[in-house]
Specification:
Blueprint lengths: L1 E9 L3 E8 L7 E9 L7 H16 L5 E9 L5 E7 L2 H14 L2 E8 L4 H10 L3 E4 L9 H12 L6 E3 L6 H11 L5 E3 L13 H15 L16 E3 H16 L2 E6 L4 E6 L4 H4 L9 E6 L8 H8 L1 H8 L3 H7 L7 H22 L2 E7 L2 E7 L8 E5 H6 L3 H10 L14 E4 L5 H7 L4 H12 L12
Helix pairs in contact: 2-6, 4-5, 7-15, 12-14, 15-16
């Protein structure tokens, strides 16, 4: 059997392959999925890829699968590990961090100001896939970024380096890395913070994904990935962000939640309200991603149970909490486990939105009370979208997401309101569609509409 496009999601434990047909027609189809254990740690990604394709063939009732294109997302071997180094934490360092998270990175270190020996030691221990250097608005402070670049160049790391700081430093940064290590893959991009209170994160996000693709094909176990994958390869969380940004262009302001076993990801694409923008303390990107490493419904289950309290859970759910916790293995198998996981998921959703969203703050001064807004404004969000295992499979997934609007009791949190429509991404293919959109945008948006169960307009907002 021949298919138009296969998209592989190469995870740390499982490789999933999604198959799509009729890509060039007005009615593209998601026709099936296969999976197999990831084989990156075995030294050859092709073993897991072939296993997933064989499983797909069995699911489709055919002997062999052939394909015209294969694209991929990857979070294998720890995903995209990055360190980020800026000038002022609340300005250039934060802007650089936003760019890295939005590209799908896992941030292991953020520093502000001049690097110290302890910072350099930590970089060596982390062994990042990519380092991002920022610092200084355009035509502003120059010395910190140059100082940091010189120290990082002396580490002799054979990884991509991205510079996204003061435009005046570009030639100097190039010279530093040319002199220290001629083989260093240096990417120079527009400043992430070109002016005070102005973010410019999208060029850096794109370069991070390009650098990731360049680097990942040389990583242990991934060297032969190009023998099978003939299209783009991007980080899995970055692919979900690409899909979220694409959907925003068609239907407007949205958030996407993914509650997993270990973490909870939240992507928002919204400009917020003009009223809140006027009182914002600092700028926020249009597209923002946060990842909560302590909020997961399996690996990090004890964290959420501790926050809620065992006694409270026992009373609320009327189940034997200790028994359920001892027997529950990643996927809930009986009514007690389902109730338990739904409650954990609800808490993970609320906490993730609380940490992602901004809030109203009152400041008192000589002229009386002033109203300020800090953080991301989600008040204009029209759609709350659930993806991932928990929010696409649990029986009460829609009710869980409805709790977001109800939780804003004080009225000071910049949360979505009760008018936001709840959507479930039933096919769980947002990451695949994010990378698919790089080559087949119209097909990707059609397939996403089918998965969400909504009719998406033919044209983007603002198009004639």
């Amino acid at each position: 059997m021949r298919v138009d496009v296969l998209v592989a999601e190469i995870g740390s434990t499982t490789t999933v392959v999604n198959a799509f047909n009729n890509i060039a027609t007005p009615d593209p189809e998601f026709i099936g999925q296969g999976q197999a254990p990831t084989s990156v740690l075995d030294g050859d990604v092709r073993i897991g890829l072939k296993g997933a394709i064989d499983d797909l063939a069995m699911n489709l009732g055919t002997d062999k699968i052939e394909y015209d294109e294969m694209l991929a997302t990857s979070s294998a071997a720890g995903g995209l590990k990055m360190t980020v180094h800026g000038l002022v934490f609340d300005m250039t360092a934060r802007a650089a961090k936003e760019a890295a998270l939005g590209a799908g990175a896992i941030i292991h270190q953020v520093t502000a100001g001049r690097l110290r020996r302890s910072d350099l030691k930590k970089i060596q221990e982390i062994k990042p896939n990519i380092i991002l250097i920022a610092g200084g608005v355009d035509y502003g402070e120059r010395d910190t970024a140059i100082y940091n670049a010189e120290l990082i160049s002396e580490l002799g790391l054979d990884i991509p380096i991205i510079y996204a700081g003061n435009i005046e430093n570009k030639e100097e940064i190039k010279l530093i890395f040319e002199e220290a290590h001629k083989s260093t893959r240096l990417y120079v991009v527009d400043n992430v913070y070109p002016k005070i209170d102005e973010l410019n994160v999208e060029p850096t996000r794109k370069i991070i994904q390009d650098a990731f693709e360049d680097h990942i094909i040389h990583a242990p176990g991934m060297e032969h990935v190009r023998d099978m994958v003939n299209g783009p390869i991007i980080p899995t969380p970055g692919a979900v962000m690409e899909c979220s940004k694409l959907l925003y262009e068609y239907i407007g302001d949205l958030i996407v939640l993914d509650v997993g076993g270990a973490t909870t990801d939240l992507h928002s694409v919204t400009a917020g309200s003009e009223e809140i923008e006027r009182i914002q303390v600092s700028p926020e990107p249009l597209a923002k991603r946060t990842v909560e490493g302590d909020l997961g419904v399996y690996v990090n289950m004890p964290n959420i149970v501790e926050v809620l309290g065992k006694d409270k859970l026992k009373e609320e759910l009327n189940i034997d909490i200790d028994k359920v916790m001892a027997e529950y293995k990643a996927i809930p198998k009986n009514p007690d486990e389902i109730k338990f996981v739904e409650r954990l998921t609800q808490e993970a959703v609320i906490k993730a939105v609380e940490r992602h969203a901004g809030k109203i703050r009152y400041v008192y001064g000589p002229s009386g009370r002033n109203t300020l807004a800090e953080g991301k404004d989600l008040s204009q969000v029209k759609y709350i979208i659930g993806t991932g295992g928990a929010l696409t499979r649990l029986p009460h997934r829609v009710e869980i997401m409805k709790h977001i609007a109800r939780h804003n009791e004080s009225g000071l949190m910049l949360f979505p309101n009760s008018e936001a429509k709840i959507l479930v991404e039933n096919d769980y293919i947002m990451a695949s569609l994010g990378v698919l959109s790089k080559r087949h945008e119209k097909a990707a948006i059609k397939l996403l509409g089918k998965s969400l169960g909504i009719e998406i307009p033919e044209k983007k907002r603002g198009e004639q």
